Amino acid sequence: MSVLVLVVVAAIVLGVLVVGQVRRSLPQTSGELAVAGLRGDVTVLRDAHGIPQIYADNPEDLFRAQGFVAAQDRFFQMDLRRHVTSGRLSELVGEAGLETDRVIRTMGWRRIAAKELPTLDPTTQSYLRAYADGVNAYINSKGSPSDMSLEYAVLARKFPNYRVEQWSALDSLTWLKAMAWDLRGDYTDELARARLAGTMSMRHIDALYPPYPYRVHAPILSPQEWSPPPGAGEPERGTKHGVREVAYRSLADPGAKRAFSAVNAALRAIPDSLGRGEGVGSNAWVVGGEHTTTGKPLLANDPHLGVGIPGIWYQAGLHCRTVSEQCPFDVTGFTFAGLPGVVIGHNGHIAWGFTNLGPDVSDFYLEKVAGGSYLRDGRYRPIHVRRETIRVAGGKDEQVTIRSTVHGPIMSDVLPDLASAGSNAPVRGKEQHERYAVSLAWTGLRADHTADAVFAMNAATNWKEFRAAAKDFATPAQNLVYADTEGHIGYQAPGLVPIRRSAIKHAPPGYWPAPGWDSSYDWQGFVDFSDMPHVLDPADGLIVTANQAVTASSKPFLTTEWGYGFRSERIHQLLTLDEKVSPARMGRIQLDTRNLFARRLVPMLLGVDLHRDRFIEDAQQLLRTWDYTAPADDSSDSAAAAYYNAVWAHLLRLTFDDELPSDLQADGGGRWREAVGELLAHPDDAWWDNKSTPAVTEGRDEILRQAMVDARLGLTKTLGKKTNSWSWGRLHQLTLRHDVVGGDGVPGIVQSVFNRGAYDMPGDSAVIDANGWNASEGYEVNWAPSMRMVVDLAHLDRSRWVNQTGNSGHPWSGHYDDQIETWIAGESYRWPFSREAVQNASEETLTLTTSGSTG
Q1: Three-state SS for 737?
Q2: Peptide bond before 310: cis, by omega within 30 degrees of 0?
Q3: Is the dihedral of CA 92, 96, 101, 104 positive or negative?
Q4: C-alpha dihedral sign at 168, 267, 361, 367
Q5: For residue range 5-55, what is the model confidence (pLDDT) as tens digits?
Q6: β-strand 362-370 against 514-515: which pairing, if any?
Q7: What's the gap between Cα 265 and its chain centre?
Q8: Where residue 127 falls among pLDDT bands split at 50, 70, 90?
Q9: C-alpha angle 612-618-621 in degrees, rounded to nearest 5
Q10: Taking the CB of residue 215, how many other CB atoms lie within 10 A of it?
Q11: How many Å from the N-terminal Cα to the C-terminal Cα in the chain?
């Protein structure tokens, strides 16, 4: 979602888009600049894409320079992020930010980060402060906000009094909470099941959440590669209150359901920092040297996150001129503007990549509230209350009251109108006087040491040091793939994963909201790091992670909400086609668009009796020679992909959406493919019956026929009558929109300055080249590979990388969008690492000095 719908009259544009102002906001990238606080000179080399490689003599200068350079390129993005994550968006964009601020203040991301900061390693704290000093040196070197970025000039026409605050270590640390929130697991599905309870049977709901197909799609680690220690992740026995099943019907009480609806609406108000839904995934795999043409490991990664411009990642290199114990950094990769260090990348010894592990790290608790108290083990206890003030640009301040129980913040309070509707609703026809509220327990609301882990990974030189760093990577929990120049490959699942009981008998832990009034359903600790799955040098020499199940073991319990393995299975197929895998082959695999599920569905579609309707059969014929790929060109396979995906969207609508709330309709991702795959074997299942046609009881074959008819009619209107003129790329398009001034309600002339696109896109939601779309909303790409990288551990300077957009956040910079076309084409750039390679690739040199020019 766009962070802001900002109403701006087109007349202001002429006053904003002036050449002088644009030039003032662009960074100086050559010559000399003084940066306060530096102990020595720092060299910043930039290549043809404006990617900085920073060289310093000590770590504080290194991170001070990183903060300065990131602010030069991306300060508005950094400032926006800190306003969002601190619940202060309204200070920047006015009333449009109020809903977001209420939700984030209720969770208290910044308050948690403030508790966390003093517990971090002293060196981590010093690095965060140094980074902040560098950002502030940039802020202090500029005049008005409009001299920093064009967005401020646009916003100033409506909110002229905005002043940029100094950056702090806390601003960087709070960003980690937003990252953890977007990459959490299960809460969406847990809340969805609670909302469906009572409107349909448990069996009917279970069909929407099919079990993971272990026999068909292998988990990351086989039983031979890892097995759980005895007792791993098991809940403690014999708690005071014992285990009591929550009655399923209690979740369906009107008071509870309205409270769950309030929570759902509130949480949807949080902007996407990284992405939302099944698209928050990724591919990462590593191949041992015995299976590569280089004789050393190869590691690939392409995180699937939300789309927008400027992009999520900022490329940079951080180099101590002399690597030592005192200055251990010689690392390069993908960073977050606003956070020191490298998040994904490699140093001179190791490389690592991430995919989302997605364990269930959040739970909702149904609370019985009476006045200012809530029921807990038979007696009422006082609700914790705090009050905060939200400042609103151009408006009045708003006071918010935030309530919490022992489990966490009461999220059903955030939108008062919805919450009050559930306060005293009748239950089973009788007036009830209990007040239901819904609180949230989430690991991200606990202080942790993830920031320590980032720096420790950057400096690690071997598997032992890497695992020690991963131990602190608490939130968000990620699948970590590893390779080193000594030839080792590895996998580690880190993260803070709670141990708890199930709220309903026979259901997995955390699958349903639990009764907050019974402490036996509370979290009972966390899985010990030593019990988390890991492997070093598996016998087959391959590790593939694409959000599939980690192991087939239920211990320790991580989640049931895995990706369903369509991407991981295809990656494994492609890696094992040849005896040896080359770096170029790794890159080509990232572009594969073959749809494994289509191989199951298409034969069913070809068998459908279309009653000799030549108009529909003409489209059906496209599927007979289709190779199951999804190119964006004008080929016959592209035409077939367009028809198949249109059929898929209509199939989901006809099968599921007649029984689901509008915001829970089928998006078409891996879970829905597995659900439909199960239903195909049961032609008379109740899900096939379209409830919007009460006089008719449809079965599988009729729904398939209607989907094919509706798809043909829809594409005829959209793409034309001739099926050979259809193209998947003409349907499946990407527009890269700016979070603040690129959305609806903004004049087109302003949008055209900040947005890019539309671009015809290949790929699909559950294929390797995962340019995802939501089948309930349309074919537009709403998540995609945010970057791609292939690291060659034999020759680090031959590694490849590409960003989704560009490294700059300034729309008139040549580096704002200079990687888009390459990224779309599936190509990449040489990734220099050694000082010699970086020097040869550099086009500009900036020296940051302790004294000199302040230009």
Answers
A1: coil
A2: yes
A3: negative
A4: positive
A5: 444 434 344 444 545 566 678 999 999 999 999 999 999 999 999 999 999
A6: parallel
A7: 19
A8: very high
A9: 100
A10: 7
A11: 38
